[in-house]
Amino acid sequence: MGVRRRAGAAATAVLLTALAACSAPAAPEEPDPAPATTAEPTKPTEPTGQASTAPVADPAHAVDPPGERDGRLWSADILVQWDKTIDDELLKQVEQLEGVAHTERIGLGQVSLENRVLTVASVDPARYRNFTQAQVADLQEAWDRVAGGELAIDRAVARRLVDDEGMIRLGVEDDAPDLHVGAYTPQVPTIDMVVNTAWAEDIEMATDNGLLISTDDITPATIRKPLERLVGKDASVQMLDVASRLGLDPDAKLTAVPTGGTLGSVVGTFRYRVLGGGRIAPEPAWVSAHIRTEQVPILGSVTCHKDLFPQLRAALLEVQQRGLSDAIDPGQYAGCYYPRFIADTTTLSNHSFGLALDLNTAGNQRGTVGEIDRDVVAIFKTWGFAWGGDWRWTDPMHFELAEVKRVG
Questions:
Q1: CA 166, CA 33: separation in Å to the nearest integer?
Q2: Is the domain of 72 the same as that of 138?
Q3: Which of 76, 117, 325, 401 is buried deepest, with most CB atoms within 10 A?
Q4: In a domain, 107, yes or no
């Protein structure tokens, strides 16, 4: 992973949207993002046609400035994601498909941020902006900031993640990169945040495993079947007009390719379908290869990702050896592997992968400091778990795998 970057440029506010609930039902309302550190937020106005003078916040992760917007705007109608590079020949075949008006190759990855698995896109700001809403595409400062190494994100998504310095850490590891929020802007449906391609290596994600497609004045669904035949069964093909209304395309086989050393190596490619009622159906082959039910100290029988068990056993065994068993109530264990979305959202959590567990639920609700024994917390951290009590919007019952450690 790359070294953290803490640039001090100001965040630019664009369009504000409502925050969806993102944890257990009836959680208290979450706080707004921290204010910008060096300038007042601004609201988009009519484009001036003048180039921005936004500073280059992070020269080590900057790309060429995009200049003024060039060319027409395109509707973002279909998003295709693979777990590998889309090659030039396949791209050419897609572009020749009847109904495809324009394409843009991008990188797509899923990053875990405080138990929310969010989609980050690595893009060329000059070209990608033409797939965004008009008032966003013409906000020059936003794209200059992305080119300069900052992050563009929907304010509703950022609301629970940005710290007091306007930074968001993209990953669960201690050395995951921290990016400054350069612009709060609405995103293309199903994409939560955007960075430039210079960040892709540090985030451990691809730059060309995704494809945005505009069908212009043709209904996107009319080309779903021929497109799916062309790109193959392992690709996710989402109709974004449906996703913008429902949150996700219910007819799509969805794909998550987690970024970072921990999730990326443990989860691999996670394909699933939406079942309704907040439930998902992961690909049976993935479940068979990764999910196990085994006995562990204190809790008894639990169902989790197979790679979680060595560290979970080690942590619970140390809890026992230090005479702290009574600090964990097996009757208030709320599970590990849950193939469903976070309540009232269409967002995956680390529970979807079996890489998180909830302990002592009654006294450790969201937004509280929690009653869980801090010695237990310290033990879990030693064994590679992140604790939700450290988050900006706390979840003290929650522990998730943050680092793969050798046990034994």
A1: 8
A2: yes
A3: 401
A4: yes
The two three-digit tokens of residue 217, written as one number? 């004045």
304: domain CATH number is 3.30.1380
* Total domain count, the chain: 2
In a domain, 254, yes or no: yes
Own/partner long-range contacts of 276-279 (Cβ < 8 Å, ≥24 apart): 276/250, 278/340, 278/341, 278/343, 278/344, 279/339, 279/340, 279/341
Domain span at residue 345 reads 284-401
Measured CA to CA, the distance from residue 221 to residue 132 in angstroms comes to 20
Q: Which two tokens stand for residue 69?
A: 């917007």
Taking the CB of residue 328, how many other CB atoms lie within 10 A of it?
19
Name the CA radius of gyration of the chain, rounded.
Answer: 22
> CB under 8 Å to 378, separation ≥6 — which residues?
none
The 3-state DSSP class for residue 118 equals strand
**CA–CA separation, 408 and 362 (whole Å):** 33
Q: What is the pLDDT along the chain (408 residues), one digit of tens a residue?
A: 333 333 333 333 333 222 222 233 334 444 444 433 222 233 332 334 445 566 788 899 999 999 999 999 999 999 999 999 999 999 999 999 999 999 999 999 999 999 999 999 999 999 999 999 999 999 999 999 999 999 999 998 998 899 989 999 988 877 889 999 999 999 999 999 999 999 999 998 999 999 999 999 999 999 999 999 999 999 999 999 998 887 888 889 899 988 877 788 899 999 999 998 899 999 999 999 999 999 999 999 999 999 999 999 999 999 999 999 999 999 999 999 999 999 888 999 999 999 999 999 999 999 999 999 999 999 999 999 999 999 988 999 999 999 998 887
Residue 273 included in any domain: no
Distances (CA, A) of 263 to 169, 205, 369: 15, 12, 27
Helices and strands in the chain: count of H runs, count of E runs = 12, 18
Indicate whether 140 and 59 sit together in one domain.
Answer: yes
Cβ neighbours of 228 (radius 10 Å): 16
Work out the number of other CB atoms within 10 angstroms of the CB of residue 315.
Answer: 23
Q: Which residue has the tokens 């429902």?
A: 246
